[in-house]
């Protein structure tokens, strides 16, 4: 799949500190976007990553060309810049995690890997930007949602639209009780708002999520819907892609 995501449990109120850790002048990028397997053969490429935080959750979104999660974890586990950042964020984590060695990093990567509930990515166009929305789930809904999606084979409900050509990719991720919608674009972030307004408010592409949400009542007016999107939007603290660095 072209997108994967991992979660971090963080202490609320340290958004500025986390942003500084991953800022371009502090964070050392990977030495190569080329991903190799244990034998050294090229198996894929990193196309970009985005990092988002809201309250007690931080999420890293990883865009790649279809390589498996194990190979991504192996590639990231030997990057010195990654380990420097892991050490720097320790004071801001809600729970200690040992990622000092490559083996420990890979183990935690797999524990933190989010489940892909649905995804629509027709091609491998790199994104100029990424938006992440966190949906508040009612207590216990994460386990129910995971079980439901594990037994239902269906197309992504939120699909790309020809009317919004700058939106290139969508995905929905779940880890325990953290549900995050990711939308990537190659135009302006306002394009995402228009796309979501049409696809979600007007056409209710995410109506199936209502039973799992903390507030199942959908907004009754476009302005109310936009207010909800604003509340759900996670803070983007880092974005890197083959198109450049923000």
Topology:
Layout: E1 3-9, H1 15-21, E2 34-36, E3 42-54, E4 57-64, H2 69-77, H3 80-88, H4 102-112, E5 115-120, E6 129-135, H5 141-150, E7 167-175, E8 178-185, H6 189-202, H7 222-232, E9 235-241, E10 244-245
Antiparallel strand pairs: 1-4, 2-3, 3-4, 3-9, 5-7, 6-8, 7-8, 9-10
Helix pairs in contact: 2-4, 6-7
Q: Short description, anyone?
A:
By secondary structure, the protein is of the alpha+beta class. 29% of the residues lie in helices and 28% in strands. Strands 1, 2, 3, 4, 9 and 10 form a six-stranded antiparallel beta sheet that branches.
Question: Any overview of this molecule?
Answer:
- The radius of gyration is 18 Å and the shape is globular.
- It is an alpha+beta fold.
- The protein contains seven helices and ten strands.
- Helix 2 (69-77) packs antiparallel against helix 4 (102-112).
- The strands form two sheets. Strands 1, 2, 3, 4, 9 and 10 form a six-stranded antiparallel beta sheet that branches. Strands 5-7-8-6 form a four-stranded antiparallel beta sheet.
- It has helices at 15-21, 69-77, 80-88, 102-112, 141-150, 189-202, 222-232, and strands at residues 3-9, 34-36, 42-54, 57-64, 115-120, 129-135, 167-175, 178-185, 235-241, 244-245.
- 29% of the residues lie in helices and 28% in strands.
- The longest helix has 14 residues, at 189-202.
- Strand 9 and strand 10 form a beta hairpin.
Percent strand: 25-35%
Distance between the termini: 24 Å
Can you summarize the main beta sheet?
6 strands, antiparallel
The DSSP helix count reads 7
Question: Segments where pLDDT lies below 50 for 5+ residues?
Answer: none
Q: Which secondary-structure class do the elements indicate?
A: alpha+beta
The percent range for helix content is 25-40%
Q: Measured on Cα atoms, how large is the radius of gyration?
A: 18 Å
The quaternary structure here is: single chain
Question: What is the number of E strands?
Answer: 10
Shape verdict: globular
Series of secondary-structure elements, N-terminal to C-terminal: EHEEEHHHEEHEEHHEE
Q: Mean pLDDT, as a whole number?
A: 91
